[in-house]
Amino acid sequence: MTTTPSVQNDEKQRILNRLRRLEGQVRGLHKMVEEERPCQDILTLLTGIKSALNASGDAIFEGYIERCQQEERPIPTAELLKVARLLR
Predict the structure, then answer these.
(1) Which residues, other chains included, contact 63 with Cβ-Cβ below 8 Å and sequence gap of 6+?
(2) What domains can be seen in the chain, in order of their start residue?
């Protein structure tokens, strides 16, 4: 499957938007800790941040694999597993 530069740019923009939202959530978490908000509220936001960060990592990893396939550059299984383990 070949993706056009436009599709790649769209995906890049989606990832950047995710990261901007994450950045805002982390700032919110920082503020909640400073304000000594209830632990349950802090932990709820922290859980959402972790989930969003994992989803962003998955999207970035998927894009990495797709780009390597487009370049017809095989990715050694060991390298894929190493990166996948880092994402856990």
Answers:
(1) 8, 11, 12, 15
(2) 5-86 (1.20.58.1000)
